[in-house]
Amino acid sequence: MKTSIATVSLSGDLKDKLDAIAKAGFDGVEIFENDFLVFDESPRQVGRMVRDHGLEITLFQPFRDFEGMPEPLRSRTFDRAERKFDLMQEMGTDLVLVCSNVSSAAIGGLDRAAADFHELGDRAAKRGLKVGYEALAWGRHINDHRDAWEIVRRADHPNVGLILDSFHTLSRKIDVNSIRSIPKEKIFIIQLADAPLIDMDLLYWSRHFRNMPGEGDLPVLDFMNAVAATGYDGYLSLEIFNDQFRGGNANAIAVDGRRSLVYLGDQVRRAEPESALAVPEMPARVAVEGVAFVEFAIDEAEAPQLEALIATLGFHKAAKHKTKSVTVFRQGGINLVVNTERRGFAASSYLVHGTSAYAMGLLVGDAQAARSRAVALGAEPFDQPLDPGEIEMPAVRGVGGGIVYFLDRKSALARIWDVEFEPVADTSTVAPAGLEAIDHVAQTMQYDELLTWLLFYTSLLEAHKTPVVDIVDPSGIVRSQVVENAAGSLRITMNGAENRNTLAGRFIAETFGSGIQHLAFRTNDIFATAAALSANGFVSLAISPNYYDDLEARFGLEARMSERLRSHNILYDRDEHGEYFQLYSPTFAEGFFFEIVERRGYRGYGAANAIFRIAALRKHLRPAGMPRA
Ligand SMILES: O=C(O)c1ccc(O)c(O)c1
Ligand SMILES: [Mg+2]
């Protein structure tokens, strides 16, 4: 499978873009005219620079407002084309993208356009060049790939072909099956882009909101399956106009782009096994049985406070690592690992971020396969030297440079707790509080990382995303998006902070990066849990009494119920599936906190309660910028 990306998709100057594109592993690049025009090197030098990066120029674009022009405009357009042909030959590319005419001067008519393309094909052929025609969704006369194909067919010239762009086809909801009957040799290149579903003007939507396949809501896979059915085996080329990407980190966006294509190719391979795209084989998306553990990096001075907090939550100290200062606290199916090592990755993570939940372990069917898939999708492998007797746990880098470990029941990893750890006598006086499992892991990140991690998780794991929800923080909006599986055994909530003043934004500033900001545990009886926690000396996050008055009004709750909720600082929500109960700890260290939830059929995450929870948590923050003890 050959992958390419248009320079317009990334930020920086042409050199920055090429560096990022080459590093991410693309084979080719579409040179967007403006990126060339604002660059100071000659076409020949640009061509050399591209090839020095190990890349091929897949096409030069766009050539605008060509077909169907009346004289004297028509002659001028052909002169303009000849100039671009000169440039392409200097640069070293043989394909130009001609997008459908948007000019008010353009005259319609398939045969007129076909004749223009036939002539352009003749001129291109003299120089060994090719012309690809793309229907813009807002083209004046041609805005549907089926019409563009009809023109290409009538042009009947070996040097004239069709360019399909998923955005233009899917944004207009054009039946993708119409692609299946196009001869593959007439498809000169495939451009791919996704986009979030927003009801707006097509041109504006296309120029500002496109994103990588899999990051948006368009059925790009259906489009691609139809393309694959033609036998097409050429480049898959990303063309992503996105305001955020233009201002983003070119390297990160390029990695996302390459991941999106590899993932798309993998899905096509599974849907159309006969496809000619030569997609590399990789293990299937990974089913997650649950979050097996979360590990904290912390120093010895602060660890007792965390351990005391965990104890009031009803966790008991279960085991100690045989060779490392690592302790496991356990309750129900939950393992919390506290790592105070002074060497190794956890120690470095502590030095950079302060106390943080820097790693999580996912229980999967085959841990090695999970890591292989992650690496095939461009994840950064994580390895760390083992002590004698330790079992290697496959891992990759995750959000904020943290670690995602994979465990399974089929390898030696099944016995890791027994092999690497020694049980410790439980001397604690606290009682278990009925916490059964990790309900969700909440990761906080910069807003512009949200799509990156969304794609990371959904391409790797058997999980889907839910729509973005706006969380109102008193100091700004935080955008929240969930990755979860159908069984509910994997739930990751991601909060993207747009500014530093929100609770999420402060967390990122205080911990010098993104990471897990809270962990939510599941109970089957929130009131019994709340009572047990109180008995353990747990102090829950105090919620404003006004909240409970409002609850009664909003949900028609009985006064007895709202009083019960209030007395335990329990938040309440309801959806069409059932009820939800939430209870919070105050923040700890750099803004980390715990949550306890009970789901009575409810499927969401209590977004409506977030403003109350955030307002309460803010009261517990240590003043911004205070050094750690
Ligand atoms: O927005 C545009 O003008 C434009 C130009 C070239 C393309 O390939 C495209 O998809 C859109
Ligand atoms: Mg396009």
UniProtKB/TrEMBL annotation:
It is an enzyme of class 4 (lyase). Gene3D superfamilies: 2,3-Dihydroxybiphenyl 1,2-Dioxygenase, domain 1, Divalent-metal-dependent TIM barrel enzymes. It catalyses: 3-dehydroshikimate = 3,4-dihydroxybenzoate + H2O. It comes from the Bacteria. Keywords: Dioxygenase, Lyase, Metal-binding, Oxidoreductase, Pyruvate. Residues 290-409, 437-586 form the VOC domain. A divalent metal cation binds at residues 134, 165, 191, 239. Pathway: Aromatic compound metabolism; 3,4-dihydroxybenzoate biosynthesis. Mg(2+) binds at residues 440, 518, 595. PANTHER family: HYDROXYPYRUVATE ISOMERASE, XYLOSE ISOMERASE-LIKE TIM BARREL DOMAIN-CONTAINING PROTEIN. Catalyzes the conversion of 3-dehydroshikimate to protocatechuate (3,4-dihydroxybenzoate), a common intermediate of quinate and shikimate degradation pathways. HAMAP family: DSD (MF_02238). Belongs to the bacterial two-domain DSD family. This is 3-dehydroshikimate dehydratase. It comes from Rhizobium giardinii. The lineage of its organism: Bacteria, Pseudomonadati, Pseudomonadota, Alphaproteobacteria, Hyphomicrobiales.
